[in-house]
Amino acid sequence: MADLNVNIGELQMKNPVMTASGTFGYGLEFADFIELARIGGIIVKGTTLHKREGNPYPRMAETPSGMLNAVGLQNKGVHHFVEHIYPSIKDIQTNMIVNVSGSAIEDYVETAAIINELDKISAIELNISCPNVKQGGMAFGVTAKGAEEVVKAVRSVYKKTLIVKLSPNVTDITEIARAVENGGADSVSLINTLLGMAIDAEHRRPILSTVTGGLSGAAVKPIALRMVWQVSKAVKIPVIGMGGIMNWKDAVEFMLAGATAIQIGTANFIDPTVTVKVAESIDDYLNRHNYTSVKDIIGALEV
Ligand SMILES: Cc1cc2nc3c(=O)[nH]c(=O)nc-3n(C[C@H](O)[C@H](O)[C@H](O)COP(=O)(O)O)c2cc1C
Predict the structure, then answer these.
(1) Among candidates 76, 89, 80, which has minimal Cα distance to 29?
(2) Which residues are annotated as a binding site for FMN?
(3) What residues does the Dihydroorotate dehydrogenase catalytic domain cover (predicted)?
C-alpha cells in the first residue's frame, strides 16, 4: 500500500479524498453506505449565522452530464449546528470541516468565531462563491478586494486551518486566489458551481424558481481542471480540487494538475460509495506506477 497521507495547513488527512459541501449532508446520512473513517475529510453543509429557508422549489434540474441547483444555503444556522448537530458528528473518525457562508463580513466573522471553539472541527471552508444567494456569497468571491477583505477579517478570529472556496464565475481566478492567499488563507478549494440556466420550452418558463442556478457534475470537469492547474501555479498554499470528479481517474487528473486533495460532490448522488472507491483506486494507481506516496503525483503533470 502506498502512503496516502496529505496535509492541508495543519490538517492531517489519511487520504486526499473529501466530500464537497452540500452534497453529503453532515456525513451521518451516508454512514449506512460507507465507513466514514475511510475518507480523508467531510465538508458539511453550508452554515450561516442565522437560519436560512433556502430558495423556493423547483431548485434542481438535471442537465446533460450534470445538474443545476439553486438550494440557496438552506440551513438552521450556526447555533443550531453547535447545539444539535455537532454532538452527533464529533466522534466521526475523520476530519470534520464546516463550510461557512454569509451575506456580510460580520456574519462570516461571527460564525467562524463560534466554530473556532469546537474541538472536533479541524478547519473551516469559507464559501465566498455561492451563486445561489441574492446578497453576499458570490459577491465577495468575484473581486480580489472583496475576497481579501473577508478572508483577513475571518483570519483574525479563526485560529485553525482556513480553506477558502473560490468561484469559477470570474474573469481571472488566479487573481482571486492570490488575494485570498494574501488575506491569510491556508488553502484554496475550487471550483464552486458555474452559473447556468435551464428552460422548459413547452411552458416558456425557466425550470428553476431562481431562473439561474449552479452547474455541477461531469460537465464542468474540464473547466475545473484548467482552473486548478492555473491556480496551483499562481499560489504557494495547497489547492483542493473539485468539479465533476466522478471516479478515481478524474481524481488523479486533478492531483496531477496540482491539487493536494480533492472533493467529490454530485457523484455522491449517483453512487454513495464513490468516495471510498476513489481512495482505494488512487492507491492502486500509485502501486501500478511505483509511487510510494500520493504526494509524488501532486503537480506531476508533464507539459
Ligand atoms: C445540491 C448542491 C448543494 C451545494 N451546496 C453547497 C454549499 O452549501 N456550499 C458550497 O460551498 N458549495 C455547495 N455546492 C457546490 C459543491 O460543493 C461543489 O463545489 C460543486 O458541486 C462542484 O463539484 P461536483 O461537480 O463534484 O459536484 C453544492 C452543490 C450541489 C450540487
Answers:
(1) 89
(2) 21, 45-46, 99, 127, 165, 191, 217, 243-244, 265-266
(3) 4-285
